[in-house]
Amino acid sequence: MESKQIEITNERAHTDLTTHDFYYDLPEELIAQAPSAERDGCRLMVLDREAESIEHKIFRDIIDYLRPGDVLVVNSSKVIPARLLGTTEKTGSPIELLLLRMDDSGEWETLVRPGKRAKVGASFDFGGILKAIVTDIVDGGNRKVRFEYDTDKFKNIYEVLDAVGNMPLPPYITKKLERKEDYQTVYAKTEGSAAAPTAGLHFTTELIEQIKAKGVGYVEVTLHVGLGTFRPVKVDKIEEHLMHKEHFIIDEDAAKMINDRRNKGGRIIAVGTTSCRVLESASSEDGTVNAMEGETSIFIYPGYKFKAVDALITNFHLPESTLIMLVSALSTKEFIMRAYEEAVEKRYRFFSFGDAMLIV
Fold first, then answer.
1. Could you give the CA distance from residue 294 to residue 278 in angstroms, rounded to a whole number?
2. Counting C-beta atoms within 10 Å of the first and last residue's C-beta, which end of the chain has fewer, N or C?
């Protein structure tokens, strides 16, 4: 596998589309505040790009749209309980940390609220179990922190976070999460995400086994989702938006299965925009997927030519977001925005805990 020093960007195409071209009206009550009672029981909108037709199904019906020889590519990154609520050691004032990413030295880049209490050298306590010390202030005002904890009691920082941390739900979810596992895919393995790869939340272990039994390949890749995924696009010309970096891994076995299936006529079906970004980041111009590990800041919007991904399973995304731009690139902006309007009319549930879309 290639070195993790690789950084993937993309040559951005010129477009006359503006950020506002991806706006749609969404009633607040359609923002899902809790997951479906059954993971695979949510609604599924199926978009046929060639016919520009729309069907309305239940998520578990997705198996009917998968063919033997296809390969399903999922993101197995695991959400960490990255939201820490504690106090400053000096004054006892409340403090909140949101963990973004760990560097090679073991220090973490974090968002701290309120930032005025987070000068270099400041220390914070979390339940008497975890201590954080600010070591640096980095670009954008984020803080680097070093953690201290009882290494006899905890094997690593992730065990500590399981004890004291909270799931970092997106700001549009205001309802308290009843169970941590509700914001985790059933195949989550590798800790590192600050947000869930939400298209995968709809899969059950049983549904995955049924899909495999049909002759569909199943591959796991990793992309650690950062909070940049929720960063609004603040520029009018979308190609001027500064895309966030996220760490990704695709190993030799995964790349081999994907390439073998594609060479035999199978489709590559990405589960979520995160898996899609991994595949497009790791692909050569001829569509060959390469094993690699690195950082990607690939920005996909209309005008982008897909190299690897043939179909996409995704949720319904925020207006004017980079995610709705990516989805529009796989089809057309006009068809996707029409589908979103129909989803609003038919009272689909939106965003992280909402309903799903399949684009074939």
1. 10
2. N
